[in-house]
Amino acid sequence: MKSPASPSRKRLLLALAAVALLLITTPSVLGGNELKGRWTLRITIPEAPESTTTRTFLVTLEVAPRGESLHGRANLTDEAGRTVGAAWRQVGKRISIAYELPCPGDGPCASLILQGRVKGGGVLIKKGSVIVMWDTTNNRNPALYDTSNGSFRGDRIVE
Amino acid sequence: MMKSTRVGPLAVIIIALAAASLGTSTARMQGERSLAGEWIVSSTPINGQMASPKGVSLGFPDRDMVFEQQGDLRTGVVLREDVGQDVRPLGVWRIDGDQFSTTFQLWCPDTNGPCGSIVMRGQFVRDDKISGTMTAFFDVSDERTPTGYDTWTFSFVGRRVAGGSN
Q1: Which of residues 3-42 of B touch A (CB under 8 A)?
Q2: Residues in A touching B93 (Cβ below 8 Å)
Q3: Which chain B residues have a beta carbon less than 8 Å from that of A72?
Q4: Which of A17, A118, B86, B166 could link A33 by a cystine bridge, Cβ 3.0 to 4.6 Å?
Q5: CA-to-CA distance for B118 and B124, rounded, in angstroms?
Q6: Which of B90, B96, B98, B111 to probe the A interface (max A CBs under 10 A)?
Q7: CA angle, corner B129, sides to B88 and B69, nearest 5?
Q8: Does pLDDT of A114 surpass 90?
Q9: d(Cα A13, Cα B149) in Å, to the nearest integer?
Q10: Which of A131, A132, A142 is nearest to B152 (CA)?
Q11: 0.95 exceeded by the pTM?
């Protein structure tokens, strides 16, 4: 005859089931700290070279899996619906994303290099830094062009 | 007589519109360039520096680069089959008239060593020749630079590979 499970055994089984459910539904288990997937990036950079006024904009980043490669591709769509390509690399939690700003107007354009760490079990990039290299030449800058620093935050879009 | 006075202004308008259209398309043809295709790009450190200020080097001066465009998506890859079939540094690019910018990630198999990103700014000398400067930003801090990252610059010349990958 089968004996009924004791209350402590029931609690243990419930706890194990809860842990299993958490492991199944947490994105970190699906992707680990890999950047692949969809992200919302909130990027803050100066409005122009040597400007103290900043602008903040949102982009959606769709990161393709990189397989066994050190690099991967991504598509980045801004709030105006413009989509450009990006290239990314990752070692452990450290990621780098490089892309060219879509610049339809007459304002200064730039290349952006975003660097940060994937945290929160693969759902967050906090306190990321941005290197901005503008199109305006500057012989006094070691990069030979005007540069600025910016910041960004990334939040994984969980679907 | 009446008929000719009506047709005259109309003909002038048509000719003017045709001329304007021709002028626009001619200007576009002259102004539009594309990096799409295969290029051999040779770079030389500016001021003869053989390593970055923090001692990082890049290793190879000539790069076999392939650029592609699909709509607004402009991508690039450096072919390093001399090192391995899987070694494919990736990048992106944009163009405005004959001025272009392209940004690549460096390929760093040694995960304990420094890595970085490259930004190339250049212009077309001819349809099959480009030149400009290349800036490497390494993931190594350097308080002497405005960005705070170790920075190393090169000049480069690129020649389009006739009938190369596209």
Answers
A1: none
A2: 100
A3: 90
A4: A118
A5: 19
A6: B90
A7: 50
A8: yes
A9: 52
A10: A142
A11: no
